[in-house]
Structures are given as structure tokens and as C-alpha cells.
Amino acid sequence: MIPEFYDNCGIQGAYVPEINCILVLRDSALEAVNDPTLIEAFLVHEMMHASAHKLIKEGWFRSPYDETYWGTFLEEGWADLHRGIYRSRYMELKSLQEKLNYDNLSTESIVPIRFAKDNIYLPIPVKYLHVASDGKVRYSITAFAGYALELLWRKRPDLRDAMKEARTLFSGLERVKSILDEIHRGIYRALQLGGYTEDDFVNKLNMVISKFYGGLPSFIDGEREKLTEELKEVWNNILSPDRRKIF
Ligand SMILES: [Zn+2]
Question: Which in 8, 45, 101, 221 has the greatest CB count within 10 A?
């Protein structure tokens, strides 16, 4: 049953709340082209889901008093942000450095990901990426939620404590809701609604960058201290013809 589950879903791990059980596939091909911390980090992601098992009936970060459904984006953000923290601490950069072909990358370097469908680019830190067994650089869609949440935490560091509290106490769920709506009225509901699809997650990261960082050019401008000269140039070209205003 378990090999079929992975083949059918094409995913690395899952948390099954009904039996409070985590499944993670130890894919030796992926370990070989990355490093063992990639799979360990998938385990961290699933363990972070499991950290809410006492409140699971209420539906992840959904407050019991609101009308939204599941809060998947916040939940996946919570799990994947912690995966990112783990990767940032322990990953080896060698294979991503080779595949991405940028010099002097760090785990926090923000590289552009292009979404052909909407003709947009979004930044993603290297720690959220990996090399797939076919040699291509890949991401899991939850990375967009993880990074969006990271950017929200930057704006309101108390959101982090509230989310931690929300894993075990209803009062934390209410705090999460009120902090988000203090940052921007209606943002809690906007993040909560929607499906578990790449389009949804990409749109929500885009929304966080637009609403809280003044849009992509202004966000990249704010990150310039952290960018290598090469990445500045790459972003510069992407954001052209406004580049003179940016760098
Ligand atoms: Zn997840």
C-alpha cells in the first residue's frame, strides 16, 4: 500500500492525522543528487504538521470562530518554513550551485523562478530548492507558502509566537487571525481561502510581496544587500526597463 501511495501521489511525505502518523519516502536517488538533509528536511515538514495533532479537528490554523475552511496555505507555510530553516542550517550547496550556475550562492540567495503561464517571476531562496533525480532544479509548491510566511514574520515577529501558541491552544488561533488582520485588513481570509495548487500558492506569495513589500521591484531593491553582483544583474534584467530605478 505504501509504495502505491507514493507512486500515485508523487509526493515525498505525508502526515496522516487520523492515526497521528508521518510517512516520508527515503528516496536514495534524491539523496544521491542532493545530500541526506533533503529527506531529513521533508521529515521536519511533516513533523511540523503533526505538531497540531491536538487541534487537528479544528482544521490547522483555522480559528473555530471563523467561516473559512482549512487554512491550508498557513499550515503548509508553517511546515515548509521549518523545512527551510532546517535546510538552511544543514544543507550542502554544491549540487544546487552547479545546476543553478550562479556564483557564491548562499542558502538565503533569492533566485528567480519563472511562471510561464502568467509570465511572472517570483523570488525563492535556495534553501527551498532541490535537484530532482533527472538533474533539473525543482521546488515543492509548499515553498511559496513557506517563503510568504517568512516574509509575514519579518513584518510582524509576534506572528511567529502566535502560530506556535496556535499549535496547542485556541487562543493562539485567535491571535494569528487578529495579527494578520492588523497587518492588512482581510488578509487572513484571503490567505485561508483557496486550494492546494501551484496557482493558488504562487498567487498568495505574489499577494504578500505586493501588499507588504510594494511589489517585486521594490522588494528586490530591499534585498539588494544580500544579493551577489551576478544575482543583482539577473534581477536587473528581469525587472527591466525599470532597472535604473532599482539598482
Ligand atoms: Zn505539508
Answer: 45
